[in-house]
Amino acid sequence: MDLRFTGAVPTDEEREAVDACLGPPEDGWEGGARTAADLRSSRGGHAARGRRDRLLPALHAVNDRIGWISEGALDYVCRRLTVAPAEGYGVASFYAMFALRPRPARVLHVCTDLACAARGAAALTASLEGLLGPAGATSGGVRWQPSPCLGLCERAPAALAVQAGVPRDQDGAHAVAHLADAPRAYGTAVVGPATAGTAELAAAAPCAAPGEPPAENAVPQAGGDGLVLLRRIGRADPESLDGYRALGGYTALRRAFALGPAGVIREVLDAGLVGRGGAAFPTGRKWEATARQPERTHYLVCNADESEPGTFKDRVLMEGDPYALVEAMTIAGYAVGAHRGYLYLRGEYPRALRRMEHAIGRARTRGLLGDDVLGQGYAFDIEIRRGAGAYVCGEETAIFNSIEGMRGEPRSKPPFPVERGLFDRPTAVNNVETLVNVLPILERGAAAYAAVGTAGSTGTKLFCVSGTVRRPGVYELPFGARLRDLVELSGGVPEGRRLRAVLLGGAAGAFVRPDELEIPLTFEGTREAGATLGSGVVLLLDDSVELPRTLLRIAEFFRDESCGQCVPCRVGTVRQEEALHRLARPARTEADAAGDVALLREVGAAMRDASICGLGQTAWNAVESAIDRLGVYAGDLPADGLPAAGGPEHPVDGGSV
């Protein structure tokens, strides 16, 4: 790829895809036919910079239609947006979902990450090699390739089949007359639990593949008493706005208008709500700091790019209760003084995208979004921006760069997002679960909300239980429940197996032993235990799982997902993986192992202390906990390779439930 404008010409189909997203070119300087008038004037300056944020949608448009982005297509996109080709190439090459070399229109992504690896991903990929050839090869017009976590952990092992060639309308959305027609129109198919046969069939014709199971299948507690955030899933049609309102929808927004922006923030502060993405920062303080900034333009960003291996709660909320997120974003925007919200949605979530597009469209039609929300004189609207496969974009400032049409690299702080965020304006960033918690706060009052949980962790929490567990899915428990309660609720490990370890918080989290199940599930409780609650990942691993292989997969994940911006992370993640490879060799000596463990500690400390963002700062956490708590490489485990545990009659240890 030449990094300057070249003579490469887009095909008619590529040009059509870009123009459908950006509109027809206005003059010859941005890709239209050159006229004599164009030689006397040109577009640029503020007008050009104001369109840079359309770069990611334009790249999606080409990739969706053609299946890859050619030199001619990228050249045309850059001309349309007056973006330097070198910058356009840097953005396109940053995201895993974009291809810059020819590939077939049908691609099968097979998850090989932690939850799927524990449920047979290796056997699935071996079978696919027999059917379709090695990974990356093309057979029968289909290419299959391993993928990091697809967020389908409750259906592991999982696969996502994508077919290019379906045009999108001028707003970047697929033209679908009825939501029931959406799977065919979107050209995607989700398979899970997948076999080689079902994955191959879905890849051969994604548009004709069977639909996904209902969202409530991912919620074992669906329809039960005591649920707060999950109470509507399985009880209301996620496509029906009237059904949502019949079960209390938009009660919270009406109360927000009665309280006023400052009153809403006070309720959130009094409720003690903290962020559910892992950092646990007080939400009310973030909103208050954003609202008091003197700039006239403020923004709200919903981080729905959950890419932590083992995390899928936000996906289930968007698929099962999409109007709740629309209402919650409207309340948050009202509180912080924003009139526009961006929903940055993970690119591997086709059904969540369909549901959220539908819900936003219906809310706009019914006056619940737009220039005059509920007749209160408040203008607010939501725009969806699709991610394109970059774990680091879960970092709040990396999201800003991605939306603005740049590489999704984190920014140095300060300034903080509440001061200078999206488009250099004050911005509040919250994830899906955090925002949806605002609804029960306003519906029931701050005091009632804070009465649930503990003093330091109020309310309820969603936990993503996966791995070698009988009933994987999203569970809702009040803060303060024990880890053992959650393990028992999910049925524990399969019959005849013993629990080896639990990974709390995902790849950036920490392992705990089976004799540590009394850990309270609170932010403060897990910190005191030397672990982390993170985003709510609870990955159970039984004695069939090879822990060294799991640690190596974690290291590979961070190596691949590092944006490379800072040396500690860019180099440290590679050195960590290399050391783990050496430790996995059967011929290693005790002295060599001790040296590699010492090197891991040194590299891990450097990443933790000097990396720009949380990716590098937490890349060593799980490996460190496995070494120190599980004794993976030190020979500290009993002869059977397992810490002591309870009797086999207990569900934790594969007995009867």
Molecular structure report:
By secondary structure, this protein is an alpha/beta fold. It folds into 5 domains: 12-92, no CATH class; 106-168 and 183-210, Glutaredoxin, CATH 3.40.30; 241-450, Rossmann fold (3-Layer(aba) Sandwich); 460-542, Ubiquitin-like (UB roll) (Roll), CATH 3.10.20.600; 547-628, de novo design (two linked rop proteins) (Up-down Bundle). β10 and β11 form a beta hairpin. α1 (12-22) packs parallel to α4. The longest helix is centred in the last third of the chain and has 21 residues, at 590-610.
What topology emerges from the helices and strands here?
Elements: H1 12-22, H2 45-49, H3 55-66, H4 71-81, H5 85-92, E1 106-111, H6 114-118, H7 121-132, E2 138-139, E3 142-147, E4 159-163, H8 182-186, E5 188-191, H9 196-204, H10 241-246, H11 251-259, H12 261-271, H13 283-291, E6 298-304, H14 313-320, H15 322-336, E7 338-345, H16 350-365, E8 381-386, H17 396-403, E9 427-431, H18 432-436, H19 438-444, H20 446-450, E10 460-467, E11 473-478, H21 483-489, E12 499-504, E13 510-512, H22 523-528, E14 537-542, H23 547-561, H24 567-583, H25 590-610, H26 614-618, H27 621-629
Parallel strand pairs: 1-3, 6-7, 6-9, 7-8, 10-14
Antiparallel strand pairs: 1-4, 2-3, 4-5, 10-11, 12-13, 12-14
Helix pairs in contact: 1-3, 1-4, 3-4, 4-5, 7-9, 11-15, 11-19, 12-13, 12-15, 14-15, 14-16, 23-24, 24-25
Keywords: 4Fe-4S, Iron, Iron-sulfur, Metal-binding
Pfam families: 2Fe-2S_thioredx (PF01257), Complex1_51K (PF01512), NADH_4Fe-4S (PF10589), SLBB (PF10531)
Family: Belongs to the complex I 51 kDa subunit family.
